Amino acid sequence: MPAARPEPPANPYTVLGVATNATEQEIKQAWRRQARRYHPDVSKAPDAEARFKALADAHRLLKDPARRAAYDRGDPDPETHPGFHQPPPQRSTRPSQRAQRRPAGRGPSIDEDFFSGTQGDSASELLEALLRQHQQDTPPQDQTAELQISVEEACTGGHRLVQLQGHHHSGQSDGLRELDVTIPPGMADGQRLRLAGQAGVDALGRHGDVVLTVHLQPHPLFSVQGRDISLQLPVTPWEAALGAQVTLPTPTGSLTLTVPPDSPGGRRLRLSGRGIPGKPAGDLYAVLQLVLPRADTPDARAAYAEFARQLPFDARPAWAH
């Protein structure tokens, strides 16, 4: 089995993502851009520490004209190669205050060893720029809440005053505040309503959004499934048998509904597009519910007896033997 060959050192131009004829300014810009992306204090990439170290090594080589020229000539001296072949710079044996304060297990911090020679850019200035860029790349936090509305409001829209806890960027509440929320027609159960810029202020002075999850309140007449609305329509036996014009309540107002003759109990009469608005809109279903007069007087009982004589009817034909 052939012996494994050592992996060659990384090409510093490839590491920084620049051409071999890149100018000093282009190398500097590439280093700053990549450092912002992969510094372990900012990046969440699992290999951020290793990539940042390789970037720092590549930048340290290419920013030095003499070392860069030697590398371009193919000088085999390890001092001119990027990666981990270079000896570390001379440091004091006494740890710096920054190193003493650094938590164990963290990646390399931004220090003057990585950023020396960047034409006046101090470590603290670059770290501040990195953190500011990280904050700017992170959207402001949204605030969520629940909003209970009626079936009528789901169909016609409306206004609600909603009380929300205010939030400071420190995470502490700054008291209750009230929002006048406009409810557009067509809000179905579980749908979200986004109020842009109405959340609290973050550390950069930005407002997130308030996101309200809509829930429909129980209704004494209407039941809702998706965008369809159903209600029970009580009718008398003669209305169901002979047909009738009845007044039907709906979430947007009353209307006249025709009950067809010879309609059985449980029949669903569909009113297209009369449900919750949308694309497409839901439908409204009136479910016929037969209501029998009570036989609680002599005249009522006599009427039922006459009805039975005049109209013999077997309500259980399937049971006949």
TrEMBL record:
Residues 69-119 are annotated as: Disordered. Gene3D superfamilies: DnaJ domain, Urease metallochaperone UreE, N-terminal domain. PROSITE patterns: DNAJ_2. The keyword Transmembrane helix does not apply. CDD domains: DnaJ (cd06257), DnaJ_C (cd10747). Residues 69-82 have a biased composition (Basic and acidic residues). It comes from the Bacteria. Residues 11-75 form the J domain. SMART domains: DnaJ. Pfam families: DnaJ (PF00226), DnaJ_C (PF01556). SUPFAM superfamilies: Chaperone J-domain, HSP40/DnaJ peptide-binding domain. InterPro entries: DnaJ_C, DnaJ_domain, HSP40/DnaJ_pept-bd, J_dom_sf. Keywords: Chaperone. PANTHER family: DNAJ HOMOLOG 1, MITOCHONDRIAL-RELATED (PTHR43096). This is DnaJ C-terminal domain-containing protein. The lineage of its organism: Bacteria, Pseudomonadati, Pseudomonadota, Betaproteobacteria, Burkholderiales.
